[in-house]
Amino acid sequence: MRILQLLNHTRRLNGHVHAAVDLACAQAKLGHSVAMASGGGDFDALLAANGVETRLVNQERRPATLVKGLGVLYRLVRDWKADVVHAHMMTSAVLAWPICKSLGIPLVTTVHNEFEKGSILMGLGTRVVAVSAAVGQSMQKRGISKSRLSVVLNGTIGSARFEGKDRTPRRLESPAIIFVGGQHPRKGIPDLLAAFNIVHNKNPATRLYVLGDGPYLDTYVNQASTMECGSAVTFMGAQDDPFPFLLGADIFVLPSHADPAPLVLSEAREAGCAIVATDVDGIPELLEGGKAGILVPARDPLRLAEALCTLVENAEALQEWRNKSQFNIEQLRIERVARQTLEVYAVARRQIRGQSSEPV
């Protein structure tokens, strides 16, 4: 199959990009012809090294640029003879829709963050992929027919992004609790700091490591500095590869208020961390309904602190939940994601062929 993947860009530290790059490389490894059309970025060399063609299509949201990009993309889809076009971002989906319509090619879209206002535009796809069942349900409420939706749960194990990377655990002071993610309100970092303050007061040796960047980083750094636990909190900024830090940690914590299907949970489970996360959106699906990690209510620092204390204060409980993180972990392999997505393409192609054969 000839698969054209579409992204606005291929820069690091963006979950949409990571998921699409992982998918493209995995599909190429399965023997398909895959190209990535985007504005370019950090992952172009990795894509090329994994047999994925890279094509430049500038999709910056400026009228003249988009008009030009539409023409470039039309010629690419036509001349490259794509069997299916897969868009991962709203701009890409909007540009691809009229092209796919005119050429009779299925457009598949993936909804990575359904809470974004414009995510309803992903409904332009012949088939719409939701990265968790929770996202699928949300999109149905927003008007996308269940008959056009397919759920393909995220997974990262075996990703080309991690091949050949250093897997030496970083030395962190133990017991080490780690958070990896964007510094945004929806990630619940103030709740984490409030919970950690309780944990640290009861267990002074405990340390919290916060990895990630974002517009609220300075706010959270300042908040931590005013708390009793401040000296035990280390903000480490964005890391190209957080996996060695996860390997060096005891507990991974994700206190999100909203999170469709965070890739980092797959990485934390692969690293063998005990996991505490909030019971929202796609998080329970990635933790096997609580069999692979402890689920707590969102926006509840006290319950979060209780779960963390259970692990910090009880070595047997900590090891038990480390072991539980491996439950059914094969489901988080990128090859499974790639194969299920190929099945979605097959359905979309049959759907397009059925439409073209219908009498006018």
TrEMBL record:
Gene3D superfamilies found in the cross-reference section: Glycogen Phosphorylase B
The protein's name in its UniProt record: Glycosyltransferase involved in cell wall bisynthesis
One example GO MF annotation: glycosyltransferase activity
Pfam families given in the database record: Glyco_trans_1_4, Glyco_transf_4
Domain of life: Bacteria
Keyword Transferase: yes
Residue ranges of every copy of the Glycosyltransferase subfamily 4-like N-terminal domain listed in the record: 14-155
Lineage: Bacteria, Pseudomonadati, Pseudomonadota, Alphaproteobacteria, Hyphomicrobiales
